[in-house]
Design brief:
Blueprint (H helix, E strand, L loop, with lengths): L1 E5 L2 H7 L5 E7 L2 H4 L5 H13 L3 E8 L5 H8 L2 H4 L3 E5 L2 H10 L6 E3 L1 E11 L2 E6 L15 H4 L26 H11 L44
Parallel strand pairs: 2-3, 2-4, 4-5
Antiparallel strand pairs: 1-6, 6-7
Helix pairs in contact: 4-6
Length: 230
Protein backbone atom coordinates (compact mmCIF):
# COMPACT_ATOMS: atom_id res chain seq x y z
CA UNK A 1 0.00 0.00 0.00
CA UNK A 2 1.35 3.43 -0.99
CA UNK A 3 1.15 6.00 1.80
CA UNK A 4 0.46 9.60 0.79
CA UNK A 5 0.02 12.92 2.56
CA UNK A 6 -1.62 16.17 1.48
CA UNK A 7 0.48 18.83 -0.15
CA UNK A 8 0.21 22.31 1.32
CA UNK A 9 -2.78 24.00 -0.32
CA UNK A 10 -0.65 27.04 -1.18
CA UNK A 11 1.75 24.81 -3.13
CA UNK A 12 -1.20 23.31 -5.00
CA UNK A 13 -2.60 26.77 -5.82
CA UNK A 14 0.79 27.88 -7.10
CA UNK A 15 1.01 24.85 -9.41
CA UNK A 16 -2.45 25.76 -10.81
CA UNK A 17 -1.41 29.32 -11.60
CA UNK A 18 -2.94 30.52 -14.85
CA UNK A 19 -5.57 27.74 -14.84
CA UNK A 20 -9.23 28.28 -14.05
CA UNK A 21 -11.19 25.08 -14.75
CA UNK A 22 -9.90 22.10 -12.76
CA UNK A 23 -10.89 18.42 -12.93
CA UNK A 24 -10.11 16.12 -10.00
CA UNK A 25 -9.04 12.48 -9.89
CA UNK A 26 -9.16 10.41 -6.70
CA UNK A 27 -8.18 6.84 -5.84
CA UNK A 28 -10.49 4.36 -4.17
CA UNK A 29 -7.58 2.18 -3.10
CA UNK A 30 -4.51 3.43 -1.23
CA UNK A 31 -5.34 7.15 -1.14
CA UNK A 32 -8.85 6.53 0.17
CA UNK A 33 -7.47 4.39 3.00
CA UNK A 34 -4.99 7.18 3.83
CA UNK A 35 -7.87 9.68 3.86
CA UNK A 36 -6.09 11.70 1.20
CA UNK A 37 -7.95 10.86 -2.02
CA UNK A 38 -11.37 9.37 -1.35
CA UNK A 39 -14.84 10.81 -1.91
CA UNK A 40 -14.69 13.01 1.20
CA UNK A 41 -11.27 14.42 0.23
CA UNK A 42 -12.43 15.14 -3.33
CA UNK A 43 -15.35 17.15 -1.94
CA UNK A 44 -13.04 19.00 0.46
CA UNK A 45 -10.62 19.84 -2.34
CA UNK A 46 -13.47 21.00 -4.57
CA UNK A 47 -14.73 23.34 -1.86
CA UNK A 48 -11.22 24.62 -1.12
CA UNK A 49 -10.51 25.39 -4.78
CA UNK A 50 -13.88 27.03 -5.38
CA UNK A 51 -13.36 29.25 -2.34
CA UNK A 52 -10.20 30.47 -4.07
CA UNK A 53 -11.94 31.29 -7.33
CA UNK A 54 -11.38 28.10 -9.32
CA UNK A 55 -14.12 26.21 -11.12
CA UNK A 56 -14.14 22.47 -10.43
CA UNK A 57 -15.59 20.86 -13.55
CA UNK A 58 -16.05 17.43 -11.99
CA UNK A 59 -14.20 14.52 -10.45
CA UNK A 60 -13.51 10.82 -10.93
CA UNK A 61 -12.97 8.32 -8.13
CA UNK A 62 -11.50 5.24 -9.79
CA UNK A 63 -10.79 1.85 -8.17
CA UNK A 64 -7.02 2.28 -8.64
CA UNK A 65 -5.64 5.40 -10.28
CA UNK A 66 -2.40 3.64 -11.25
CA UNK A 67 -4.33 1.39 -13.68
CA UNK A 68 -4.12 2.90 -17.15
CA UNK A 69 -7.42 1.35 -18.26
CA UNK A 70 -9.30 3.21 -15.52
CA UNK A 71 -7.55 6.48 -16.34
CA UNK A 72 -8.23 6.16 -20.05
CA UNK A 73 -11.90 5.37 -19.44
CA UNK A 74 -12.42 8.36 -17.16
CA UNK A 75 -10.42 10.72 -19.36
CA UNK A 76 -13.06 10.30 -22.07
CA UNK A 77 -15.28 12.46 -19.85
CA UNK A 78 -15.85 15.73 -21.72
CA UNK A 79 -15.48 17.80 -18.54
CA UNK A 80 -12.08 16.26 -17.98
CA UNK A 81 -10.87 16.83 -21.53
CA UNK A 82 -11.95 20.47 -21.65
CA UNK A 83 -10.56 21.49 -18.25
CA UNK A 84 -7.49 23.68 -17.97
CA UNK A 85 -5.74 21.22 -15.68
CA UNK A 86 -6.24 17.91 -13.88
CA UNK A 87 -5.42 17.63 -10.17
CA UNK A 88 -4.76 14.08 -8.96
CA UNK A 89 -5.37 13.03 -5.35
CA UNK A 90 -3.29 9.86 -5.56
CA UNK A 91 0.31 8.66 -5.43
CA UNK A 92 2.93 9.63 -7.98
CA UNK A 93 2.18 6.51 -10.01
CA UNK A 94 -1.44 7.65 -10.25
CA UNK A 95 -0.38 11.11 -11.42
CA UNK A 96 1.88 9.55 -14.05
CA UNK A 97 -0.88 7.22 -15.25
CA UNK A 98 -3.44 10.01 -15.64
CA UNK A 99 -0.83 12.17 -17.39
CA UNK A 100 -0.12 9.37 -19.87
CA UNK A 101 -3.86 9.11 -20.60
CA UNK A 102 -4.31 12.88 -20.96
CA UNK A 103 -3.58 15.18 -23.86
CA UNK A 104 0.04 16.32 -23.46
CA UNK A 105 -1.01 19.96 -23.71
CA UNK A 106 -3.05 19.63 -20.49
CA UNK A 107 -1.18 19.85 -17.15
CA UNK A 108 -1.76 16.90 -14.80
CA UNK A 109 -0.66 17.89 -11.29
CA UNK A 110 -0.23 16.17 -7.91
CA UNK A 111 -2.24 17.13 -4.85
CA UNK A 112 -0.38 14.64 -2.64
CA UNK A 113 3.16 13.63 -1.70
CA UNK A 114 4.00 9.91 -1.86
CA UNK A 115 5.86 8.76 1.24
CA UNK A 116 6.44 5.00 1.37
CA UNK A 117 5.22 1.47 0.66
CA UNK A 118 3.54 0.28 3.84
CA UNK A 119 2.50 -2.70 5.82
CA UNK A 120 -0.88 -2.15 7.47
CA UNK A 121 -1.16 -2.90 11.16
CA UNK A 122 -4.81 -1.98 11.15
CA UNK A 123 -6.96 0.70 9.60
CA UNK A 124 -5.21 4.04 9.93
CA UNK A 125 -1.90 2.58 11.21
CA UNK A 126 0.75 2.23 8.50
CA UNK A 127 4.44 1.36 8.74
CA UNK A 128 7.06 1.28 6.00
CA UNK A 129 7.34 -2.35 5.03
CA UNK A 130 9.48 -2.58 1.90
CA UNK A 131 12.07 -0.44 0.09
CA UNK A 132 11.45 -2.11 -3.29
CA UNK A 133 15.20 -2.76 -3.64
CA UNK A 134 14.77 -5.58 -6.22
CA UNK A 135 17.05 -7.94 -4.26
CA UNK A 136 15.15 -9.33 -1.27
CA UNK A 137 17.29 -10.52 1.65
CA UNK A 138 14.48 -11.47 4.05
CA UNK A 139 15.34 -15.19 3.89
CA UNK A 140 18.56 -14.45 5.78
CA UNK A 141 17.29 -11.78 8.17
CA UNK A 142 14.23 -13.30 9.83
CA UNK A 143 11.96 -11.31 7.50
CA UNK A 144 13.17 -8.04 9.03
CA UNK A 145 14.48 -5.83 6.23
CA UNK A 146 17.79 -4.05 6.89
CA UNK A 147 17.22 -1.86 3.83
CA UNK A 148 13.96 -0.59 5.32
CA UNK A 149 14.32 -0.87 9.11
CA UNK A 150 17.93 0.31 9.36
CA UNK A 151 18.31 4.04 8.53
CA UNK A 152 21.83 3.29 7.25
CA UNK A 153 20.75 0.29 5.19
CA UNK A 154 23.49 -1.86 6.71
CA UNK A 155 23.62 -5.42 5.37
CA UNK A 156 26.13 -6.97 7.76
CA UNK A 157 25.13 -6.35 11.31
CA UNK A 158 24.75 -3.29 13.55
CA UNK A 159 26.86 -0.16 13.45
CA UNK A 160 28.95 1.07 16.35
CA UNK A 161 26.27 3.50 17.40
CA UNK A 162 23.76 1.01 18.76
CA UNK A 163 23.23 1.59 22.49
CA UNK A 164 21.14 -0.62 24.76
CA UNK A 165 19.65 -2.17 21.65
CA UNK A 166 18.38 1.16 20.30
CA UNK A 167 19.16 2.88 16.99
CA UNK A 168 21.42 5.94 17.12
CA UNK A 169 19.59 7.62 14.21
CA UNK A 170 15.97 6.96 15.19
CA UNK A 171 16.56 6.82 18.92
CA UNK A 172 13.02 5.62 19.70
CA UNK A 173 13.42 2.57 17.44
CA UNK A 174 15.05 -0.70 18.38
CA UNK A 175 18.08 -1.49 16.23
CA UNK A 176 17.03 -3.54 13.20
CA UNK A 177 20.01 -5.85 13.58
CA UNK A 178 19.29 -6.46 17.25
CA UNK A 179 15.79 -7.49 16.23
CA UNK A 180 17.18 -9.69 13.46
CA UNK A 181 19.54 -11.38 15.93
CA UNK A 182 16.80 -12.04 18.46
CA UNK A 183 14.41 -13.44 15.85
CA UNK A 184 17.01 -15.70 14.25
CA UNK A 185 17.96 -16.94 17.72
CA UNK A 186 14.34 -17.94 18.40
CA UNK A 187 14.28 -19.74 15.05
CA UNK A 188 17.56 -21.55 15.77
CA UNK A 189 19.08 -19.92 12.68
CA UNK A 190 21.86 -17.81 14.21
CA UNK A 191 24.33 -19.41 11.80
CA UNK A 192 22.97 -16.96 9.21
CA UNK A 193 24.59 -14.12 11.16
CA UNK A 194 27.98 -15.54 10.14
CA UNK A 195 27.25 -14.95 6.47
CA UNK A 196 28.73 -11.87 4.83
CA UNK A 197 26.28 -10.18 2.52
CA UNK A 198 27.79 -8.92 -0.75
CA UNK A 199 27.58 -5.23 -1.64
CA UNK A 200 24.17 -4.10 -2.79
CA UNK A 201 23.69 -4.52 -6.54
CA UNK A 202 22.10 -1.18 -7.37
CA UNK A 203 21.96 -2.08 -11.07
CA UNK A 204 18.87 -4.15 -10.24
CA UNK A 205 16.97 -1.00 -9.33
CA UNK A 206 18.05 1.26 -12.19
CA UNK A 207 15.03 3.40 -13.01
CA UNK A 208 12.58 3.43 -14.64
CA UNK A 209 11.84 -0.25 -14.07
CA UNK A 210 9.20 -2.36 -15.79
CA UNK A 211 7.79 -5.88 -15.74
CA UNK A 212 6.07 -7.33 -18.80
CA UNK A 213 4.30 -10.58 -17.94
CA UNK A 214 3.69 -12.99 -20.78
CA UNK A 215 0.53 -14.43 -19.25
CA UNK A 216 -0.98 -12.01 -16.69
CA UNK A 217 -3.58 -13.45 -14.33
CA UNK A 218 -6.96 -13.38 -16.06
CA UNK A 219 -5.50 -12.84 -19.53
CA UNK A 220 -6.93 -14.89 -22.39
CA UNK A 221 -4.24 -17.09 -23.95
CA UNK A 222 -3.57 -16.14 -27.58
CA UNK A 223 -4.54 -19.65 -28.70
CA UNK A 224 -8.04 -19.18 -27.30
CA UNK A 225 -8.69 -15.70 -28.69
CA UNK A 226 -11.30 -15.49 -31.42
CA UNK A 227 -9.71 -15.72 -34.84
CA UNK A 228 -6.25 -16.60 -33.51
CA UNK A 229 -4.15 -19.15 -35.31
CA UNK A 230 -3.20 -22.40 -33.58
Amino acid sequence: MIITKNKDINAIIKSLEGRKKIYLFGCKSCAEQCHTGGEAELKEMSASLEERGFTVTGHSLVPETCYRQYALKEYKNAACKTSDAVLVLACGAGVRTVADAADESQPVLPALDSIFLATVERQGRFFEGCSLCAECVLADTGSICPHTDCPKGLLNGPCGGVADGMCEVNVENECAWVRIYERLKKQDRLHLMKKTAPPKDHSLSVKPRRVLLRNPVGAVPASKKKGSRP
